[in-house]
């Protein structure tokens, strides 16, 4: 299971990089940058929760520029990989207790949190893709997981 989630995180980083490059090239409106910042901030919040930490000072919609986003993409990826590499096989089925940003308590299996993390990124990248299309982009970045596996022989 560890190998599978590491592969998904590698894909997620790739898709985020491709989408960010498309945003920059298209000189997209601020909303696209805001969506990417939200996606990446949520990754940081979830990592804190998985580590049993309270996400102190977390902002769900940070005001980051494209240079910051590029750094955060790589930092998030490295921190998630470090976390996953320290896990044992049984850890993916263990419950993680956490509070949302409203202070409500929840408990979910780590595997489910990781699935949510990847799906959340896909959701917001799709929104950004729509913005690219509506703004007149003739070609959209290919961020499909299956295309990623073909390209990188996963």
From TrEMBL:
Pfam families attached to this UniProt entry: DinB_2 (PF12867)
Q: Which InterPro entries match?
A: DinB, DinB-like, DinB/YfiT-like
A GO molecular function term, named singly, is: metal ion binding
Keyword Metal-binding in annotation: yes
Chain ranges of the DinB-like domain: 33-128
What keywords appear on the UniProt entry?
A: Metal-binding
The residues that the entry says bind a divalent metal cation are 38, 120, 124
Sequence similarity: Belongs to the DinB family.
Query: Which named protein is this?
Result: Putative damage-inducible protein DinB (Forms a four-helix bundle)
């Amino acid at each position: 299971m560890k190998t599978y989630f590491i592969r998904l995180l590698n894909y997620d980083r790739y898709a985020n990089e491709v989408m960010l490059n498309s945003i920059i090239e298209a000189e997209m409106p601020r909303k696209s940058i805001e969506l990417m910042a939200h996606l990446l901030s949520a990754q940081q919040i979830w990592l804190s929760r998985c580590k049993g930490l309270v996400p102190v000072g977390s902002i769900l919609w940070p005001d980051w520029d494209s240079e910051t986003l590029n750094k955060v993409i790589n930092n998030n990826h490295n921190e998630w990989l470090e976390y996953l590499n320290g896990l044992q096989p049984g850890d993916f089925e263990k419950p993680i207790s956490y509070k949302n940003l409203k202070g409500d308590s929840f408990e979910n299996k780590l595997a489910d949190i990781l699935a949510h993390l990847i799906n959340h990124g896909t959701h917001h990248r799709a929104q950004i893709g729509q913005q690219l299309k509506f703004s007149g982009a003739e070609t959209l970045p290919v961020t499909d997981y299956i295309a990623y596996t073909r390209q990188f022989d996963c």
